[in-house]
Amino acid sequence: MQEKIQRMIDRMILPVIFGMDDKGNYVVEDLRNLGHILIGGCTGTGKSAFNQTVIYILAQKYNHKELKFLLLDSKITGLCDYEKLPHLMSDIPENPEKCLSELGKVLKEKNRRTEKLRITECNDIALYNKRFPNNKISYLVIIIDTFCDIAYRDMARFKNIIPDIMNDSVRLGIHFVMCDSRISSEIYSDKIKGCFSCRIAFQTATADQSEIIIDESGAEKLNDHGEMLVFNKDRAIGRIEHIKSLFISPEVIEEFVKRKSKNRLNQTLDSSFKEETAKKTNLRPPVRYCSSGSIVKEN
């Protein structure tokens, strides 16, 4: 990775590499500022590859205690490369009902974090972690591939639970990245879209689909894999950026996950060894001394 990108990553809390713009400049944004990302586009245009890049960069920056991922992909295809990553909050669910159940757990976690910050009088996760460095709250990034499957399982439940979680979630360290290829106003509703300040359109089949995602046509004219139009209302109102996303090969991801898993295993074994040693040490009889100061032998 080029030094310039690395410097940008280092100074951000939750860096997301979008890719390269038309001027040849790298576009890297902080998810802490973006809040959440909504993605749409035809099958095979680069959505899953973008998600994989998000996971790769964040997992490079943080260990499994500092950052957690919840990966929801009922087809278990777009995110399966990361199924053994130690950062995962749980296994990738294999059906939409289990995905909804996991979202219910996230809502409970959000409420737990809200209460913890209220009790400690901290405005956000950054302040809390600064005050309590030995009891930090991990960042939680929820990545949903093919979220339509989850929505169609229980549309009313889905349309309610997503805004419920997202409301005030950024200060709690909870962020969403959601995508799908089935683009309709029913799924990409104003209620859902209103939760996302950043929206990305990869190539779409029609101009109407492009407008559903980013409120403008244009994505239907994209040709190359990984080409995207990015709408970020907090960065520049009404401005759409054309960006070519980066690509990380499956081989690089596989090696990365193996390395992270091995490090986690080594840490676990080391921790278990220390715990076992401590237990054995605690079982030793206490040393007793007589009045002369010599050790009294136990029978």
- Runs with pLDDT <50, length 5+? 268-274, 289-299
Helix share bin: 40-55%
The global form is: globular
CATH superfamily: P-loop containing nucleotide triphosphate hydrolases
CATH topology: Rossmann fold
Q: Class in CATH?
A: Alpha Beta
Whole-number total of structural domains: 1
The N- to C-terminal Cα distance equals: 65 Å
Strand order of the largest sheet: 2-1-9-8-7-3-6-5-4
Note the main sheet.
9 strands, mixed
Order of helices and strands: HEEHEHEHHEHHEHEHEEHEE
Q: Structural class given helices, strands, pairing?
A: alpha/beta
Mean pLDDT: 87
Q: Helix segment count?
A: 10
**Proportion of β residues?**
15-25%
Shape-level CATH architecture: 3-Layer(aba) Sandwich
E-strand count: 11
Radius of gyration: 23 Å
List the keywords:
299 residues; alpha/beta; Rossmann fold; 41% helix; 18% strand; disordered C terminus
Describe the overall structure.
With 299 residues, the chain is an alpha/beta fold. The chain has a single domain (3-248), classed as Rossmann fold (3-Layer(aba) Sandwich), CATH 3.40.50. 41% of the residues lie in helices and 18% in strands. It has ten helices and eleven strands. It has helices at residues 3-10, 31-34, 47-61, 96-120, 125-131, 147-153, 155-166, 190-193, 207-214, 250-283, and strands at 15-21, 26-30, 37-40, 67-72, 139-145, 174-180, 198-201, 227-232, 240-244, 288-289, 295-296. It has a nine-stranded mixed beta sheet. It has a two-stranded antiparallel sheet with strand order 10-11. A hairpin with a 5-residue loop joins strand 10 and strand 11 (295-296). Helix 4 (96-120) packs across helix 6, helix 4 (96-120) packs parallel to helix 7 and helix 6 (147-153) packs across helix 7. The longest helix is centred in the C-terminal third of the chain and has 34 residues, at 250-283. It starts with a helix and ends with a strand. Mean pLDDT is 87; it is low at 268-274 and 289-299.
